[in-house]
Design goal:
Layout lengths: L1 H18 L5 H10 L5 H30 L8 H4 L4 H16 L1 H9 L4 H9 L7 H27 L3 H28 L7 H12 L8
C-alpha cells in the first residue's frame, strides 16, 4: 500500500508541477527517496514515475500551448493562459533563441529552472522544427536522476535519524536553489544582445491576445 501511495504522490505532484510551477516536485521526490533508502525497488519505481510524469506533463502542456498559439483556442480558459505567468515570460526571453540553436541543452537547463519546463513548452509551441517530445524526455530523465540522487545522498549522510535526514534534504535543496539563483543573477547582469525585431513582435502579438496580459 505504501509503495503504491508513494508512486501516486510522486506522479501526481510532478505532473501538477507543470501546471502549477510553485508545487515543490523536487522536494517531494527527494524526500520520498530519502525515507526509502532501504527499498531499492521503490527507489527505482520512483525514478521511473518521476521521469514519466515529468515528460507526460510537458507533452500535455505543449499540446495545449500549441493550440493557444496557433489561434485555434483564442478563447482558452484563464486556467490555461494563466500558466504563462510573468516568471514564465522572463524565462522565455532567455530560452527563445537557445531552443532553435541548441534544443537539447535548452531542455536540460529549463528543467532545472523555476517554471522553466512551462516556459520551454510555451517557446517550443511557437516552432514547428523543435523535437519537443525528445527534448522533454531528456530533461525529465536527467531531472529525475538528479532528484533521486539528491535523496540518496541526503539519506547516506544523515543515516537513520529522521530529523537529521529532513535537515539534510532541506539543506541540499536550499543549496540547489541558491545556486540556481546565483546563475540566473549573473546572467541577468550581463549586457543583453540586441534581439531581432520580427520574432519579438510576433511573440508579443501572440501574448497580447491572451487574457493574462490584461492584468497589470
Amino acid at each position: 500500500m505504501t509503495f503504491l501511495l508513494s508512486l501516486m504522490l510522486v506522479g501526481g505532484v510532478v505532473l501538477a508541477d507543470f501546471f502549477l510551477p510553485v508545487v515543490p516536485s523536487s522536494a517531494v521526490v527527494t524526500t520520498v527517496v530519502g525515507f526509502s533508502r532501504d527499498e531499492p525497488a521503490l527507489i527505482a519505481a520512483v525514478l521511473i514515475a518521476a521521469a514519466g510524469s515529468s515528460w507526460l506533463g510537458e507533452v500535455l502542456g505543449h499540446r495545449i500551448f500549441r493550440a493557444v498559439r496557433s489561434g485555434r483556442r483564442t478563447d482558452a480558459p484563464r486556467a490555461v493562459t494563466g500558466l504563462v505567468t510573468r516568471t514564465v515570460l522572463d524565462v522565455e526571453r532567455a530560452l527563445r533563441h537557445a531552443v532553435d540553436a541548441h534544443p537539447y541543452r535548452a531542455a536540460v537547463a529549463a528543467r532545472f529552472l523555476p517554471a522553466g519546463r512551462t516556459a520551454l513548452a510555451w517557446v517550443a509551441a511557437g516552432s514547428e522544427r523543435v523535437p519537443y517530445a525528445r527534448m522533454a524526455a531528456l530533461g525529465a530523465s536527467l531531472w529525475a536522476v538528479y532528484a533521486v540522487g539528491l535523496g540518496l545522498l541526503a539519506a547516506t549522510i544523515a543515516g537513520p535519524d529522521v530529523e537529521s535526514l529532513v535537515g539534510w534534504i532541506a539543506a541540499l535543496l536550499g543549496a540547489g536553489g541558491v545556486l540556481t539563483w546565483v546563475i540566473r543573477r549573473r546572467k541577468s547582469l550581463r549586457p543583453a544582445a540586441p534581439e531581432e525585431p520580427e520574432p519579438v513582435r510576433d511573440t508579443a502579438n501572440v501574448l497580447l491576445r491572451l487574457p493574462f496580459c490584461a492584468v497589470g
